[in-house]
Design brief:
heterodimer; A: 114 residues; mainly beta; 7-stranded mixed beta sheet; 11 strands; 48% strand; globular; B: 115 residues; 4-stranded antiparallel beta sheet; 0% helix
Chain lengths: 114, 115
């Protein structure tokens, strides 16, 4: 099992460009999440999907959109990238998205917006 | 809103020593869950240990244990017999019991284990 995979690993964008970060999990999990990690800060939740067909905002959703394409895949889209969105982006999944469950994280995507 | 604070940006100890990482949190909820995640240089986030706030007994996982002080809103991580492979960023995280598991993370503590 690959667990949680993310593509691309690294991306450079110019201000105003758009791109989609892809995430897939092969653990048959219901819930998926997108976080960003900035230097000196912990991970912050951007959006999450408690189950297929649902998405909800997290702590820092502005400037992002998400799509839960199916049970396996959860994408994050930047419509018009800004330098403030330079960060490392992590996707995670968990079985039901509740309580004491472990969240399983992908390896991250490093995004640089110039 | 819940907040999680880790007041030690960096720590360094010798191999085989015991080290304690601090975490405090702020919430008005009475029931919640707390976690410690580890992020080694590979950047992969890995769950280390977790604690239910309504359980008084402190959680342990092999060399890792917590000191949970609910009244003080403190959740420290103790690593015994530290190993070189413990070198990583450690993040404390919090979530309420109701609804979806939306983790709130602290800023992290960079732990270096020296040979």
């Amino acid at each position: 099992n690959a667990g949680v995979t993310q593509t691309p690993k690294f991306q450079v964008l110019k201000t105003g460009q758009s791109m989609t970060l892809q995430c897939a999990q092969d653990m048959n999990h219901n819930s998926m999440y997108w976080y960003r990690q900035d230097p000196g800060m912990g991970l912050r939740l951007i959006y999450y999907s408690a189950s297929e067909g649902t998405t909800d905002k997290g702590e820092v959703p502005n400037g992002y959109n998400v799509s839960r394409l199916n049970k396996r895949e959860f994408s994050l889209r930047l419509e018009s990238a800004a330098p403030s969105q330079t960060s490392v982006y992590f996707c995670a999944s968990s079985e039901r998205g509740r309580g004491l469950e472990t969240q399983y994280f992908g390896p991250g995507t490093r995004l640089l917006v110039l | 809103a819940q907040t999680v604070t880790q007041s030690q940006p960096e720590m360094s100890v010798q191999e085989a020593e015991t080290v304690t990482l601090s975490c405090t949190y702020d919430t008005s909820e009475s029931n919640y869950y707390l976690f410690w995640y580890k992020q080694p240089p590979s950047r992969q986030m890995i769950l280390v240990i977790r604690q239910e706030a309504y359980k008084q007994q402190n959680a342990t996982e092999n060399r890792f244990s917590v000191n949970f002080q609910k009244a003080a809103k403190s959740f420290s991580l103790k690593i015994s017999d530290s190993q070189l492979g413990d070198t990583a960023m450690y993040f404390c995280a919090f979530t309420i019991i109701q609804g979806a598991q939306k983790l709130v993370f602290g800023q992290g503590t960079r732990l270096t284990i020296n040979p």
